[in-house]
Design brief:
The complex is a heterodimer of chains A (113) and B (664). With 113 residues, chain A is mostly beta strands. Chain A has one helix and six strands. Chain B is α+β, with helices and mostly antiparallel strands and 664 residues long. Among the domains of chain B are: 153 residues; 101 residues. Chain B contains 22 helices and ten strands. In chain B, β6 and β7 form a beta hairpin. The longest helix of chain B has 33 residues. The C terminus of chain B is likely disordered. The chains are: A mainly beta (113), B alpha+beta (664). The interface between A and B is large, with 37 and 54 residues.
Chain lengths: 113, 664
Amino acid sequence: MAAALAVFLVYTALAGGTPSLRPSQVAGHDGRVSVAGKVVGEPTGTARGATGLHFTLRDVQGTATLPVVYRGSVPDLFRTGRDVSVEGSLQNGVFVADKLVTKCPSKYTNKPS
Amino acid sequence: MPELGRAALLLAFGLVVYAALAGGYAAYRARRRLLESATNALFAAFASVGLAAVVLLAALARHDFSFSYVASHTSRELPLGYTLSAFWSGQEGSLLLWLLVLTGMGSAAVVLNRRLVRQVLPWTVPILGALASFFALLLVFVASPFGTQVAPADGVGLNPSLQNPYMLAHPPLLYLGYVGLTIPFAFAMAALASGRADERWIVATRRWTLASWAFLGFAILLGAKWAYEEVGWGGWYAWDPVENAALMPWLVATAYLHSVMVQEKKNMLRVWNAVLVTGAFCLSLFGTFLTRSGVLNSIHSFTESPIGAWFLGFIAVVAAASIALILYRLPVLRSRTRLESLVSREAAFLYNNLFLVAFALTVLWGVIYPLVSDAVRGVAVTVGAPYYDFFAVAFGLPLILLMGVGPLIAWRRASLRALGRSLLWPFGVALVVGALLLAGGAGSSPAGLVGYTFAAFVLAAIVLEFVRGTRARHALGAGSWAGAFTSLVGRNRRRYGGYVVHAAIVLLLIGAIGIGGFATTREAKLSAGQSLAVGDYTVTYLGSEQRRAANAQELRARLAVSRGGDELGTVLAGKNRYFAEQQTSNEVAIRSDWLRAEDLFVIADQFNTDGSVFLKVIVNPLVNLIWLAGLVFVAGSLITMWPDAREQQRLARRFAEDGALARA
């Protein structure tokens, strides 16, 4: 019973999970992925406007960057310097995201960034 | 002052290490006076940790920013209540709270069971001491809350989303639950170490387990309420690892509470219960680790903060030591009674256990899977809501069904015919309710329809139990019907309190299905005067306004709400800009209709420069039953825990006999 459950879980997780990548790993992945990185530079545009919210994600430990455009609700904790995770796909070199989650390093502590 | 705090913690560390070592030697060699001394060390440690806590609270209250902890979690503008709550909003303070509750509860449990601990379970004291030593060690050497710095002019402030009344209560209640699970664990291990296979430790810790479990459950719901109002995406539970961290130990503790009844009644499942109580405790440690080590910040490194590795090591040691102890005592634990039939109360408890534990393991797997896949395949794969939802339904529906069937099955061996007879009514009610809902259009969510049918089944079964019991009492001549009812519940507090808790779970289910399966969402950009229709509500944007509060600038959209032509007044939805924290937070508008138990939920997503506003409006049917379930849950738990003189006498008689047997 336990073994059957274990196999089932592994299978489900493999089939149903979304790959979670660093900005440097995104190139070459078509299809839906999630990317976690640090917001660098000033975000421009509006998330609920025609243009969408534009910002750049950088590897948390590294220098590779990825341009992102996002449309949807912006979470409270989103701002430059925060670690966030976006979900969507790469289209013509720009990552088009429809889901934005702050990784909230500040959920419990408010480190000045 | 920080020196005083540090000294108090160092002293506490010395005391709990003494309680562990001297207590261990005393238990091993049966040295009664040394054990007494170790016990006193545990009490003294509680006092010492209490002093450290007072030092930290005083520093918070005085805005003493020379304490790094105070400076990094509060600011001058922060209201006093939230300033004090910063005690548990950071890692170091939380660890201090852990140790405070652990030494406090441990002392209380030892005092209340003084004779049992002294004569039968001396190992309780050193085990509690050893567990406390770990937290004291962290607080003294790794994560001290009493680090100092040159005081800055102002602190960085408290995360705005934590500035919410529910967040004042949620963490301490959660910790009472987490830490409370230490008590049954310590007594269980002490029973094993002393080679006592009888059920005395279970009886001694029954209320501790129930209370911890009730605290944990209530804290989870408070957290959900906070998320619903403050995080404000329109839902109440998002399978976030932080939430799962508390759910896992609660699920295992729920399984334990059920299976322990089988052990009490039938002396079965001893090994299984020892495993469950260990599992619940390890998961509560794991939960603390998840929320306090920083592992969730970055799924790529398990040991980003210094306490992460310590915690993992500690969990590994606790798990290994417990399993070794269980294996060592296996010959004593083996029960002489066997399961007689697959259709019996015992078997129903067993199925309930399998589903609960399987569900907890599934959640655990979802939480650690990204780390495993990163280590094995080099790419972290996150599992999202669909994974959890699938298993919540797959394991949840049979559990709900068992909740209705279990209490009606006889112990030992039930005849299928008798079972069928007692299930006839609930089954009929479920069919009628299902048909009515289908006719009413609830078929839009098939899983929801099935869930509601099951909910009706369980509620009918519970009501039937109350009716049958009351009738029987009344027939015995208990006077009025109301008198018969109260005497029924009063004489069987555990049983009928348990039913009330079951009813709470059903209410939760009804609310959760309402919001999960039948919510309506609309989004639109509105200029002043424009309206948006959602369900049978109409929301009209009247204009925006600004106000300056003590620590934030408040921006609000004023909205008129009407339903079916009736004006229902105005609501305000908007954002706060916090000065010290330099952060924006969404302040959603929630209009609750208690009669229908439904909410109108408005998020002002974006204020545009031309004066228009982007709104997201959600109608959440029946969602308030979730919060009502929390109150019913507490009421049911209190009934099961309420002191009962008759029960005490029964137990005293039973263990007088047992004791005689054990000596013979």
